[in-house]
Amino acid sequence: MTLSKLTPLVSTIWLKEQILASLQNTAKLNNSLRVLDTSWLPDPEVDGYKQFYAQAHIPTALYFDLKKLSSPNETSAAKFPIPDSNVFKEYVENLGISNNTHVVAYDRLNTRSSFRTWFLFRLFGHDKISVLNGGLRQWLTDGFHVTTEEPTVEKAVFNVNFRKHLLRDFAAVMKNVTSQTEQLMDARPPEMFCVPDKDQPGGHIPGAKNIPFGSLFNEDGTVKSKEDLKKLFTEAGIDLQKPLVSSCQIGMTACGLIAAAYILGREDVPLYNGSFTEWSKLADPSMIVKEKQN
């Protein structure tokens, strides 16, 4: 089955068929398909491997540890810094991922870690990356089984092609506040984007437009149709024909807006990885807007 170039999503039925095909006539996994369980919570005490993946996962899946890849460091104000290219390269090679591997990311919670994984692979030059629409929840709803068996894979060779144009740093976003060259999207909930009390934590970067991450999904956790996604952008005052940049609180849910824009034909929307966590630490308080802007 050929996937559309303009969508980062695959269905549970499609994935089930591909898993069966990848295992046909062989007792071990090849590197043509790699399913990654990216289940994650920001709490440092939560071990995603032990508390999510090891309990049950989609057959053939391996665990993709976002915390290990993006651990905080003293040189960055971002909560989850972008990993070094060599670190990313070695990590995915040990998962048996080559440049020819079709990677499918999923999680059991709210898809934010799946979209972050999708973005990271594209950032490091890998376009054969998709997100399982609806995640583990949809997989189980469709009656497909899970397992605790952990597959073994052979190390692969992955060549990085880092796309720096997909990132924005604090200086670039600060400059954009004045130039308004790029429309800044913010994926945080409305109550974090705008706060009634000026002394309350929260607010947003001047000029930002709010499209809450949760608004991208249907009630069953699948991503909304193109028509509904486009309506969200329009109602937020975002012109999809003009330059965009995406942000949130810690650089996670912003990747969902990037994926939504990708579905709508905008394939190279950059991420402000530091997002509001970095902005609130480095920017002057006058550069934090508390109230809603028209």
UniProtKB/TrEMBL annotation:
<dbReference type="GO" id="GO:0005739">
    <property type="term" value="C:mitochondrion"/>
</dbReference>
<dbReference type="InterPro" id="IPR036873">
    <property type="entry name" value="Rhodanese-like_dom_sf"/>
</dbReference>
<keyword id="KW-0677">Repeat</keyword>
<protein>
    <recommendedName>
        <fullName>Rhodanese domain-containing protein</fullName>
    </recommendedName>
</protein>
<keyword id="KW-0808">Transferase</keyword>
<feature type="domain" description="Rhodanese">
    <location>
        <begin position="178"/>
        <end position="288"/>
    </location>
</feature>
<dbReference type="GO" id="GO:0004792">
    <property type="term" value="F:thiosulfate-cyanide sulfurtransferase activity"/>
</dbReference>
<dbReference type="InterPro" id="IPR045078">
    <property type="entry name" value="TST/MPST-like"/>
</dbReference>
<dbReference type="Pfam" id="PF00581">
    <property type="entry name" value="Rhodanese"/>
</dbReference>
<dbReference type="InterPro" id="IPR001763">
    <property type="entry name" value="Rhodanese-like_dom"/>
</dbReference>
<feature type="domain" description="Rhodanese">
    <location>
        <begin position="29"/>
        <end position="148"/>
    </location>
</feature>
